[in-house]
User: What shape does this take?
Amino acid sequence: MTDKIKAPIEPQRQHARARRLLRHVWVHFQEDRSMAEAASLAYTSLLSLVPLLAVVFGVTAAFPVFNQWADQLQAFILQNFMPSTGEQIAPYLDTFLLSVKKLTLPGLVALIVTALLLLTRIEVAFNRIWRVEKNRTWLSRIVMYWAVLTLVPILIGTVVAISAQSLFGLIGGDEGSRPLFYRFAIFLVTWFMFTTMFMLVPNRSVHIKHAVTGAFLSAVLFELAKWGFVGYAANANYNVLYGALATVPIFLFWIYLAWIVVLFGASLAASLTTFSDYSRYETAWPRRWEFQLAFRLIGHLRDAQMEGKSLSRTRLMELETQASELQLLRLIGRMREENIVTIDDEGGWLLARDLGDLTLGDLYAAGDYFLPLGDTEKLPRKSAWDDAFVDSLKGIAGSAGQVWQQSIRKMHHETRAQGKQTR
Assistant: This one.
C-alpha cells in the first residue's frame, strides 16, 4: 500500500484542494455533531453566565488600572458579545453581580464550580473536535482554566482602555477615525480570544498557524452573525408570543448561534491539522472502500498486541500512509464505541475483544460501511490481509452466512501461516 503514493498536486489544482478542504471541514463539523454540541453549550452558558462574568470582573478588579473603566468593560461585553439583548439583560446582570458580593463561602464555592462547568463542557467539545481521547489531569485542567480566565479579561480590559476617549487622544487618533479604530480593536479582541481558546483548551498541541486561521474565520463569522442577528431580532416580534420573557429565547438563540460560529472555526483549525497529512496527495481509501481499511486496522492492532504493545495515532498513520488522520480516527472511534478497541493510559490504541469472537459480520455492523461487492476487482491487493478480505467478499454472493461468520482471528492467522507479507 505504501508504494503507490501519487505525485504532488500541481499548482493549477489548488482550487480543487480548496474544495476538498471545505468538504473536509464540513464532514468534520457534521461528524462531531457540532450543531447539537452548540445547543448543549448554549444551555450551559445560560446557566454559567453570571458566575463566569463574576469571575471575569473579579480578575479585572485585581488590576487597579482597569477600575476607572469598569462600567465600560461591562458595556463592552454586553454590546459586542450580546447584541440586541444586552440592554435588556444589563439591569438583571447588575442585580445578580451585586448579589454575588454578599455570598458566603459555600455560595462562592458553588459559584466557581458553576463557572468551571462551562469551561469543562467547552474542553469536552474541543477535545472531540481535535479527536483527543485522553483527558487532562485535574492540575493541568486548573492551570488551563486559570490561563483562559486571566488572559481574556485582561485583553478585553486593555482594549476598553485603549478605546476610551482619554487614552485615544494619546495615540494620535481623531474623532472621525475613532469608530473605525474601535471596530477594528473589537475584531482583534475577538480574534485573539478565539485563538487563545483554540491553542489552550484542546488537550493536544495545536499549530499556531492553524489556530490563528480557524480563529480568524470564527471572528469574521461572529461579526457577520452579530450584524445579521441584530437585524433579525429587530424585526422578529417575540413580545407577542413571550411577552415580558421575550429576552430569554432571543438571548438563548444568540448564544446558540455564537457557539455554532466558534465550533465551526474550531473544526477548521482541527481540519487543517488532519488535512495536512494528505493535502498534497490523493487518498487511496475512498469512502466506499473503508470496510477493507477497517479490516487492515484490526490486523495492525493484532500484530501490536502479539508484541505486547499499543499503537499511537502517529504509528497508525505510518502504517496506513494513504489514509487521512481524520479517516483513521473516525474508523477507530466507531470500533471503540462497539468495544472492539480501547485506549490505554498513554493514548495508544489496542484491541478490547478476543478476535476469535469477532466475526467479519461483527466488524461490518460496527461501522457505517459500504459493501463494495461490485469493486472486488478494483480493491487494493498489496498484502495477504487484502487478499483474505477480497476473497471473502467474493464468497459473499454464494455463501453470505458462512462468510459473515468467519473469525477475524482465523482470517489473520491464515495469512501468517501462509507466510505472506501482511502490510
